[in-house]
Amino acid sequence: MELSELLAGTPTNWGRWGPGDEVGALNHLTAQRVLRGVAEVRDGRVFTLGTRIGSPEGDAVWPGRAQPQRYNTRDRSSYVAGKQESFAGGGEYADDMIVMNLQGATHTDALGHVWHDDTIYNGQSAGTTVDALGYASVLPLAERGIAGRGVLLDLARRAGVDALGPDDHFGLAELLDTAARQDVTIEPGDILLIRTGWLGTFRDGKFAGETTPYREPGLVFGRDLVEWFHATEIPALVTDTMANEATRQPDSDVVFPLHQSLMRNLGVTFHEIAALDELAADCAQDGRYRFLFVAAPLKVVGATGAPVNPVVLK
Fold first, then answer.
1. Both ends of the chain: CA-CA distance in Å?
2. I need a surface site. Which of 84, 172, 180, 311 has the fewest CB within 10 A?
3. Does this model's pTM top 0.90?
């Protein structure tokens, strides 16, 4: 089955905010909705959701993407070897650089990251992606910033496990059941965080239960799910997996249909590889799964995505 056939009749937000819009569903995050998130801050507890970059034991990176590489360009040895002179007065410094895939850590996807039928978000040509994203790159998302009320749905805790397995799939029914069990209502404009526990299984460059070809738990495509995202005006999706959706659909050979139906068609911003375990433990302890969510990806011009270290305040 082709994507165009699978997604026929599902909603889009193309043209909703004008022909030149590049931030998509983030338009749902009005000032009022941002303040609703601010109102959830009660105790001043802070959680960062970004993963470490350049860990000696290896980083969680989508298979085929290179591991980040950090290099010193100057340190104490530069001066000892006589390659650098100290500043007047004796001051010295260290410096370094990093080479990495921009989606090789916790990151935000640009809306122009995926397409089919040669068309990206908002009906623009996929030709705008040549050499650099001339339209719907990560830059407009980064310049706007992302802030609002976040809601965590802990699918792993619902299942009574530390982490879901690589073939565990879920859809709208499981999301709504989890929300009901957590006594939380998902309101229009809420930023949705989904914990599977998958990232927490990553050790020494590999996930527990990792398979070849790579599989991981996640959302599966359903028309009811896409229509719910549209009706509920979900601006952003955040998960602790590589792809934010199941890598293999249980009843279709189409790959990554939610990237197409949610990101390309609705303009939902995807944030992948988010560290959610510490936040989830805190939510389970105090029974509050609502908070202020703030994220600002790096302002990389023309990029398909950029590293981000989201911050949650409770």
1. 44
2. 180
3. yes
Rg (CA), the chain: 20
10 and 146: one domain? yes
Q: Give the range of the structural domain holding residue 132, as residue numbers without chain letter.
A: 3-64+101-313
Residues 91, 107: Cα–Cα separation, whole Å? 36
Query: 255-265: per-residue pLDDT in tens?
Result: 999 999 999 99
Q: CB of 138 within 8 A of CB of 109?
A: yes
- Residue 32 has which token pair? 């009022």
Instruction: Identify whether the C-beta of residue 235 lies closer than 8 Å to the C-beta of residue 26.
Output: yes
pLDDT per residue as tens digits for the range 78-94: 999 999 999 999 999 99
Q: Identify the CA nearest to 15 among candidates 106, 116, 110, 123.
A: 123
**pLDDT, tens digit, 9 for 90 and up, residues 103-120:** 999 999 999 999 999 999
The CATH number covering residue 135 comes to: 3.50.30.50
Contact (Cβ atoms closer than 8 angstroms) between residue 102 and residue 300: yes
**Total of domains in the chain:** 2
